[in-house]
Design goal:
Helix content: under 10%
Number of strands: 35
Radius of gyration: 33 Å
Strand content: over 45%
Distance between the termini: 103 Å
Largest sheet: 7 strands, mixed
Shape: elongated
Number of domains: 3
CATH topology of the largest domain: Copper Amine Oxidase, Chain A, domain 1
Length: about 350
Amino acid sequence: MDAKPIAALLGGQWQTEAGIAIVSTFGSLRPFSETWEVNGSPRVIHGVTFQRASFYSVYDIAVSFGAAVHVDKKTNMIKITKDKRTVLFHPFSYTLNANGKKITMPIAPLIQKGVPYADLPSVVYALGGESEGRFIATAGLIKGTSIQPQWVDQNTLLISRPNDSVSLLVDTRSRTALRSIDQMDLVLSPDGKKAAYVDENGHLFVIDLTSNTVKPIGDDDEVKTDLVWSSDSRLLYCIYGSNNDAIAVVSVDTGVINKLLDDKVKYKTDLRLSPDGTKLLYTVANEGKTNYTDDQKTDVDSIDTTLGSGTRQIWSCRFYRGDIVFNLRDAVDRNANFHLCSGVYRGDRPATAAAMAPNTA
């Protein structure tokens, strides 16, 4: 008796493939096609639905990896090869062998009209890739902690990887690393072509992201923090000195360092350059006053970090360069301690700063 009409009468389907009967109790095998992103590029992958599960063409998956597929006519063994990687599995077996490592698949593969179909995530993983949604990364997705993302261009990110002590240039379309840089805490230039960093010895360096060359900027080894680029990517501003008590500017071309502000006020941080390039903004941490219980100052009673109730300090400074005077008026809030500085250094001549004692209001 022919089983096909009986299966169809019951709402299912009966097929034979390579001498094996395939029975669907939930309707017939239905072909479909889906568009997936493979390393950021669209690719159509065909498949069939069977028993309410989706099976994907092993040929289409393999093409995405540049791999070859061979189906043994005698044993129906399916073999996928890519470089030194070999993946083996049989139809209707839940076990897949990837370079000797066994992987259990959620659904058993099948062969339909000579084409092997299988669980897509399992085959992708066996070939060394990863899938997420309808995205396939043939080299796998970047894992672990990533911090300090900065846009290089509309498709590229610069990120730091603290667990690996490296930075990565990442293509956001393919979600893959374009390059690894053996340095952390890089500060990207506005033109996206360079990145700056200071090593543990206080030396300043600039990396050309196109050529991957590293250039030392001068030989000054004083402490430099909070690097900020000028809009034309030719200057670097920084908080300068072991006590973070000065602000300096460095010429990327010549390595010459000039102090813009040296008022000896300690613990400057959070340096920012205004969008028009004419002002610098930074914060100052209050230096606490230590109160002792004895005259010998051996027993600490408390540490006072307030500036006093209701007080507001106004700082007045000027930058000089030649005969030009740059007026500087700093309003310091007793809690936030913001200094707004106008008169950012421009040019190759040294700039000096004179700061008057703070007034209170």
